[in-house]
Amino acid sequence: MAAPTELSPAFILRRNAYRDTSLLLDMFTREAGKITCVAKFTKGKGTRTRGMLEPFRLLEANWIGRGEVFTLFHADETRRYALKGIGLIRAIYANELLLRALWRDQPQPELFDQYQRTLTRLLVPADLLALPLFELDVLAAAGYVLNLWHDDAEGHDIVPLVRYRFRPDHGLYPDAGKARAFRFPAVC
């Protein structure tokens, strides 16, 4: 039997029931990136641990195994993010972004730290920039870097209230006035 990994900070992005007594967990870890683990319990035992294995809780966890699905070996909760209302909805969306945009088993320590900061910011419902900034971080981590600060025509700074067009193969460039274009607001 292989030895378990070292303890690593981790978040559960999604959990599903698996068979009678187990959970299938999609996790985002600092050292391993996005992974899937099975948490096994015996009937009537592990209730405390099972209740802790929910999204928006920072865990110290390790796992064992090879292949695509690991077995959760140990998990301790270190912080709970008590998200409510619109903050909870935004956090669920952030989890879906991570589930769909990231490759499996690719460490993303900077994005992990940004996700943790985003959850903290989402505790304040009035923080409207938390999610859009996180979206840009996820796009960058997935290899899609959008330059919204300079035009691609000449490299000049984006000017507020000037019309720009966006072409996927080139980026933003000033609208010559020939067609309707989307007006990008100034990004701060």
From TrEMBL:
Residues 8-68 form the DNA replication/recombination mediator RecO N-terminal domain. Keywords: DNA damage, DNA recombination, DNA repair. Gene3D superfamilies: Nucleic acid-binding proteins (2.40.50.140), Recombination protein O, C-terminal domain (1.20.1440.120). Transmembrane segments: none annotated. One of its GO terms (cellular component) is bacterial nucleoid. One of its GO terms (biological process) is double-strand break repair. The keyword Plastid does not apply. InterPro entries: ARFGAP/RecO, DNA_rep/recomb_RecO_N, NA-bd_OB-fold, RecO, RecO_C. SUPFAM superfamilies: ArfGap/RecO-like zinc finger (SSF57863), Nucleic acid-binding proteins (SSF50249). It holds the Pfam family RecO_N. It comes from the Bacteria. Belongs to the RecO family. Involved in DNA repair and RecF pathway recombination. PANTHER family: DNA REPAIR PROTEIN RECO. This is DNA repair protein RecO. It comes from Candidatus Thiothrix singaporensis.
